[in-house]
Protein backbone atom coordinates (compact mmCIF):
# COMPACT_ATOMS: atom_id res chain seq x y z
CA UNK A 1 0.00 0.00 0.00
CA UNK A 2 1.37 3.39 -1.00
CA UNK A 3 1.01 6.51 1.09
CA UNK A 4 -0.79 9.34 -0.72
CA UNK A 5 1.66 12.02 -1.87
CA UNK A 6 0.98 15.48 -0.43
CA UNK A 7 3.81 17.41 -2.11
CA UNK A 8 1.66 20.18 -3.56
CA UNK A 9 -0.88 20.59 -0.78
CA UNK A 10 -0.92 23.65 1.46
CA UNK A 11 1.80 23.42 4.07
CA UNK A 12 3.89 21.00 2.01
CA UNK A 13 6.55 21.38 -0.64
CA UNK A 14 7.67 18.95 -3.29
CA UNK A 15 10.96 17.16 -2.77
CA UNK A 16 12.99 14.86 -4.89
CA UNK A 17 14.98 11.97 -3.56
CA UNK A 18 18.55 11.49 -4.77
CA UNK A 19 20.75 8.49 -4.05
CA UNK A 20 24.35 9.36 -3.18
CA UNK A 21 26.41 6.26 -3.75
CA UNK A 22 29.94 5.36 -4.84
CA UNK A 23 29.29 5.69 -8.57
CA UNK A 24 30.85 8.50 -10.58
CA UNK A 25 27.48 9.68 -11.88
CA UNK A 26 25.83 10.57 -8.53
CA UNK A 27 26.87 14.17 -9.22
CA UNK A 28 24.60 14.32 -12.29
CA UNK A 29 21.59 13.30 -10.19
CA UNK A 30 22.45 15.84 -7.48
CA UNK A 31 22.95 18.56 -10.08
CA UNK A 32 19.61 17.86 -11.79
CA UNK A 33 17.71 17.55 -8.51
CA UNK A 34 19.17 20.77 -7.13
CA UNK A 35 18.29 22.72 -10.27
CA UNK A 36 14.78 21.23 -10.21
CA UNK A 37 14.31 22.14 -6.53
CA UNK A 38 15.42 25.71 -7.15
CA UNK A 39 13.06 26.06 -10.12
CA UNK A 40 9.95 24.70 -8.35
CA UNK A 41 10.72 26.00 -4.86
CA UNK A 42 11.11 22.48 -3.58
CA UNK A 43 13.64 20.50 -1.64
CA UNK A 44 16.06 17.64 -2.02
CA UNK A 45 16.41 14.57 0.16
CA UNK A 46 19.76 12.83 -0.19
CA UNK A 47 19.95 9.17 0.73
CA UNK A 48 23.04 7.08 1.33
CA UNK A 49 22.42 3.38 1.88
CA UNK A 50 24.97 1.30 3.74
CA UNK A 51 24.63 -2.23 2.48
CA UNK A 52 24.86 -4.64 5.36
CA UNK A 53 27.25 -7.54 5.17
CA UNK A 54 26.93 -10.75 7.16
CA UNK A 55 25.25 -9.79 10.44
CA UNK A 56 26.29 -13.02 12.18
CA UNK A 57 29.95 -12.19 12.40
CA UNK A 58 31.88 -13.97 15.10
CA UNK A 59 33.59 -10.79 16.26
CA UNK A 60 30.90 -8.26 17.12
CA UNK A 61 33.50 -5.63 18.02
CA UNK A 62 34.85 -5.81 14.47
CA UNK A 63 31.32 -5.49 13.06
CA UNK A 64 30.72 -2.40 15.22
CA UNK A 65 33.95 -0.80 13.99
CA UNK A 66 33.04 -1.60 10.38
CA UNK A 67 29.56 -0.09 10.84
CA UNK A 68 31.02 3.07 12.41
CA UNK A 69 33.48 3.43 9.52
CA UNK A 70 30.68 2.92 6.98
CA UNK A 71 28.57 5.58 8.70
CA UNK A 72 31.50 8.01 8.69
CA UNK A 73 32.08 7.36 4.98
CA UNK A 74 28.36 7.85 4.32
CA UNK A 75 28.34 11.11 6.23
CA UNK A 76 31.38 12.38 4.29
CA UNK A 77 29.71 11.48 0.98
CA UNK A 78 26.54 13.32 2.00
CA UNK A 79 28.63 16.33 3.09
CA UNK A 80 30.17 16.50 -0.41
CA UNK A 81 26.79 16.10 -2.09
CA UNK A 82 25.12 18.68 0.16
CA UNK A 83 27.94 21.13 -0.55
CA UNK A 84 27.42 20.56 -4.26
CA UNK A 85 23.66 21.14 -3.97
CA UNK A 86 24.19 24.30 -1.95
CA UNK A 87 26.66 25.61 -4.53
CA UNK A 88 24.26 24.88 -7.39
CA UNK A 89 20.99 26.13 -5.96
CA UNK A 90 21.69 27.64 -2.52
CA UNK A 91 19.66 24.89 -0.85
CA UNK A 92 20.34 22.76 2.19
CA UNK A 93 19.19 19.24 1.40
CA UNK A 94 17.89 16.79 3.95
CA UNK A 95 20.30 13.94 4.61
CA UNK A 96 19.33 10.36 5.34
CA UNK A 97 21.61 7.41 6.08
CA UNK A 98 20.01 3.97 6.02
CA UNK A 99 21.34 0.46 6.37
CA UNK A 100 20.17 -2.55 4.36
CA UNK A 101 18.99 -3.40 0.88
CA UNK A 102 19.05 -0.24 -1.30
CA UNK A 103 15.70 -0.82 -3.01
CA UNK A 104 13.95 -1.58 0.29
CA UNK A 105 15.45 1.52 1.91
CA UNK A 106 14.57 3.77 -1.03
CA UNK A 107 10.95 2.61 -0.90
CA UNK A 108 10.81 3.06 2.88
CA UNK A 109 12.12 6.63 2.71
CA UNK A 110 9.52 7.44 0.04
CA UNK A 111 6.76 5.81 2.07
CA UNK A 112 7.63 7.82 5.20
CA UNK A 113 7.99 11.25 3.53
CA UNK A 114 4.74 12.24 1.81
CA UNK A 115 6.41 15.26 0.20
CA UNK A 116 8.80 13.22 -1.96
CA UNK A 117 7.39 13.62 -5.46
CA UNK A 118 10.20 12.20 -7.60
CA UNK A 119 13.24 9.95 -7.47
CA UNK A 120 16.25 11.19 -9.45
CA UNK A 121 18.90 8.70 -10.52
CA UNK A 122 21.82 9.06 -12.90
CA UNK A 123 22.81 6.38 -15.38
CA UNK A 124 26.38 5.48 -16.13
CA UNK A 125 27.34 6.35 -19.70
CA UNK A 126 29.81 3.44 -19.83
CA UNK A 127 29.44 0.08 -21.54
CA UNK A 128 29.01 -1.76 -18.22
CA UNK A 129 25.38 -0.69 -18.00
CA UNK A 130 23.38 2.03 -16.27
CA UNK A 131 24.56 1.23 -12.73
CA UNK A 132 23.64 -1.11 -9.91
CA UNK A 133 20.64 0.77 -8.51
CA UNK A 134 18.98 1.36 -11.88
CA UNK A 135 19.62 -2.24 -12.92
CA UNK A 136 18.10 -3.58 -9.69
CA UNK A 137 15.15 -1.19 -9.66
CA UNK A 138 14.27 -1.74 -13.33
CA UNK A 139 12.45 -4.91 -12.28
CA UNK A 140 10.03 -2.96 -10.06
CA UNK A 141 9.86 0.34 -11.97
CA UNK A 142 6.32 -0.29 -13.24
CA UNK A 143 4.96 -0.57 -9.70
CA UNK A 144 7.02 2.27 -8.27
CA UNK A 145 5.03 4.76 -6.10
CA UNK A 146 6.46 7.95 -7.66
CA UNK A 147 7.93 9.07 -10.99
CA UNK A 148 11.58 8.22 -11.57
CA UNK A 149 13.82 10.56 -13.54
CA UNK A 150 17.00 9.04 -14.95
CA UNK A 151 19.66 11.57 -15.89
CA UNK A 152 22.22 10.39 -18.45
CA UNK A 153 25.58 10.41 -16.70
CA UNK A 154 27.37 11.91 -19.69
CA UNK A 155 25.44 15.21 -19.67
CA UNK A 156 27.43 18.34 -18.92
CA UNK A 157 26.28 21.06 -16.51
CA UNK A 158 25.04 23.30 -19.38
CA UNK A 159 23.15 20.36 -20.88
CA UNK A 160 21.47 19.62 -17.53
CA UNK A 161 20.76 23.35 -17.10
CA UNK A 162 18.82 23.28 -20.38
CA UNK A 163 16.67 20.42 -19.06
CA UNK A 164 16.08 21.58 -15.52
From TrEMBL:
Pfam families named in the record: Usp (PF00582)
Location of the UspA domain: 15-152
Xref: InterPro entries: Rossmann-like_a/b/a_fold (IPR014729), UspA (IPR006016)
Signal peptide as annotated in the record: none
Parts forming coiled coils: none
UniProt name for this protein: Universal stress protein UspA
Species, as recorded: Bradyrhizobium macuxiense
Amino acid sequence: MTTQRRSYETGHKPKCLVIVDDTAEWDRAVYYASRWAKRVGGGVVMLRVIETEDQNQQWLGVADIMRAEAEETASEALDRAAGRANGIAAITPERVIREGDPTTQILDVIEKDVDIAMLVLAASPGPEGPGPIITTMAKTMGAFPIPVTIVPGGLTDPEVDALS
